Amino acid sequence: MKRKPVPTMNGLFLFPLIITMMRISYILFFIPALSFGQLSSEIENLYGELSKSKNVESAHIGYGMSESKVYKLFEEINKKASDKEVEYIAFKGNSVAKAYASYAVFSRKLKILDQLFDDYIKNNDSISIIQGCVGSKSHLADELYRMIFWEKDNIKMTEVYRKHKASIKTEHELVNFIELFSIVESKWKVEEIDSVLIKFDQMVLNNPSSPQSLVELITGCYYYIEKNILNIMIN
User: Which helix (H) or strand (E) is 135 found in, with range?
Assistant: First the structure.
């Protein structure tokens, strides 16, 4: 029996397939470039510079406590970015940018805080931190919780700042006072912070897959509170 020749596809019919594949390649190639299309060109440029850093840095770093260029980039973004842009970076940025953007989300009292914390718990992204001259490893969810927990101390310092600010007479005294306390006036109230922390505690402790580091952090925070209460009662 004579075998039939295997049919071959004419180049003319291959052309639509090639065009389709080219379009898919074009789309895939440009996804990274288009993913931050929700940012203005200025914020996207600042984000690009910030995302080059491998570390989350405090305002001053190193033994000489020199000014951090990375932190300055964050301050510029925080000053110029809209709430929507801050939210976008907090969810879609790289780990370093997310860490800074989560601070902006919290300090601005944006309504996505619960959703953001839940997202950070699920992804459990790790970050490297340089605080002054000390380096450490942590996770985005841990740092967000820690920041909120210590905000109560910042609120108390804000109250001290407001009481004494009126008594300061010269600009030089005011500058020295601000440098002494490093005050960033909080938009939060203590009872609001407590409410957020209770909600976050439930999210973590009721979830069997919550990261161990976060569970240990919450336990440590409660131990700190109990120890302080005990010290107050003794004294």
Answer: strand 134-139
